[in-house]
Design brief:
Layout lengths: L4 E4 L7 E4 L2 E5 L10 H13 L2 H8 L3 H15 L4 E2 L7 E2 L1 H12 L1
Antiparallel strand pairs: 1-3, 2-3, 4-5
């Protein structure tokens, strides 16, 4: 069972932290692992290259390793970053587009 994260732009109660412009409230009983720089690098590479395979090549990682980093990042932020259709390139969600702008600004 995965913990829940609430995103809001206003005040929240409980444990909270800022993640690239989003206020993230963590479930105190089951806190999420924080995101790490490698996950953000993988996300940025996928967004820039348009595919997980090309991102993996640019990062000198395997494609499954990049996919795992993206999945871990999605669990950390609490929302889907890409719509996945088997056999095709991932399509960024609107949340991913906004998150990417914040990552690029940082």
């Amino acid at each position: 069972k995965s913990p829940r994260i609430a995103l809001s732009s206003g005040q929240t109660s409980g444990c909270k932290s800022r993640v690239y412009g989003y206020v993230v409230r963590l479930n105190a009983k089951n806190p999420r692992k924080p995101m790490n720089l490698r996950q953000l690098e993988a996300f940025r590479a996928v967004m820039r290259s348009g595919s997980v395979t090309n991102a993996a090549q640019s990062l000198h990682l395997s494609q499954p390793a990049v996919s795992r980093l993206i999945a871990d990042l999605e669990r950390s932020v609490g929302f889907r970053l890409f719509e996945r259709i088997r056999g095709s390139t991932p399509v960024a969600t609107p949340e991913a587009e906004a998150f990417f702008q914040e990552v690029e600004r940082s």
